[in-house]
Amino acid sequence: xxxxxxxxxxxxxxxxxxxxxxxxxxxxxxxxxxxxxxxxxxxxxxxxxxxxxxxxxxxxxxxxxxxxxxxxxxxxxxxxxxxxxxxxxxxxxxxxxxxxxxxxxxxxxxxxxxxxxxxxxxxxxxxxxxxxxxxxxxxxxxxxxxxxxxxxxxxxxxxxxxxxxxxxxxx
Length: 171
What we know:
Elements: E1 10-11, E2 15-19, H1 25-31, H2 35-40, H3 49-61, E3 65-72, E4 78-85, E5 94-99, H4 108-122, E6 128-134, H5 138-146, E7 150-151, E8 160-166
Antiparallel strand pairs: 1-2, 2-3, 3-4, 4-5, 6-8, 7-8
Helix pairs in contact: 1-3
């Protein structure tokens, strides 16, 4: 993978990680309206399959945002997403993740993020990464710490904490 545009498919022990596609509309509609998404990420005003298709297309068309779904290798059911965003206000890319509530606490998000970060590291991409989460999102904070992220010195705003990770130090 020489760039995120070249990212095709990545396999972990239980998961397939692939770029978000229009075919994921039902999944995205469910995910962005889940309690956790609405509480910690915010309402994206995606209320129909048409909205979901438009939301996905806007992500695909944005050359600063890359979304990847992770799905179960056996059932091929989509479980969650990883986002990798290049935000204008930060010099380093931002890793994000979200999971449908019925798959929480099974290690899927850790497995997907760990495989994704290792792929980035192995390909020499983006050695410094940040992750932004709400102070109240204990599950995300715990996962970031498990993935080797540390609280950043960057100032926090609006109840958000910024974590950082240097991929050159390993996963």
